[in-house]
Amino acid sequence: MIGRKNSGNASPLLLVLLVLGFFFATYNLLTMLIHNKSSSLENWASEISDPNTVENSNFRYHVALTATDTPYSQWQSRIMYYWYKKVKDMPGSDMGKFTRVLHSGKPDNLMEEIPTFVVDPLPEGLDRGYIVLNRPWAFVQWLEKATIEEEYILMAEPDHIFVNPLPNLARRSHPAGFPFFYIKPAEHEKIIRKFYPEEKGPVNKIDPIGNSPSLLEDISPTWLNISLRMKDDPQTDKAFGWVLEMYAYAVASALHGVRHILRKDFMLQPPWDLEVGKSFIIHYTYGCDYNLKGELTYGKIGEWRFDKRSYLSGPPPRNLTLPPPGVPETVVRLVKMVNEATANIPGWDALTSG
Question: Membrane-spanning regions, if any (predicted)?
Fold first, then answer.
């Protein structure tokens, strides 16, 4: 979530709350990087005040979900919104209102079901096939035109499910965000310096996050500009691939002097995270493939599987088969939560794009 620039009755010190930077990572990315997961994130956190010693602002945050009107995006958005409504008023939640920022340029058939604000996509061809570039452009337009009551914003994605009530975790001048172990600015210093000059300081001032500036209205244009510049640079485009927009957000935040409280409990990513515990969000970007013994067969289609990409053209059916015995709690919980949502959302099987 992200603090906003002063507007209406908001305080002039509008801070980023939580940056969930949850994006379209490539399907096989983790296969290459999973063994590096135990990176020294504590080094980043040590540069920031201990969050347990600073009082929370207790301000509610606005949940902003960026999405398209494709069936693939729609069914995920419906599940996400179902669970937002379930946990919004639970003890420990600081959730405020909800907006699906629809960057398709026209209303769709979810307008009455989900609170939605329509913005334009980038001009044709400008994204060069990288549809994620529409995300920063969507935020620029939404923040410029919309009336938002809350002083904090959670930037969310369709493939997020709230598994526990999420409080406002920001502390004074520091937003909070999930540390992506595969965002490694120091390993790409030569490329990063094209966008983050040496006079700004060492590269380790760039946090390993996805999206999270402190003054969102100030940083969003920078985020968009750097995303477009990175995409237009062949070396950068090749190096960062589908996480390019995440690097752009991290660099934009650093250019504005923003550092983050890094929270590993922000998000779970099945099948790699095994237990739910007190974490807040399940991010189901990776396929979950298992044999009937409950053994992970990642990279090979399993005898049992759940992969959101199996449902590109329409929603998954109701009452998906549960995983076999031995599959981790996170995967079981994910499928049960999908099943609960689809059982209770009216017209689940009938809805199509349009």
Answer: 12-30
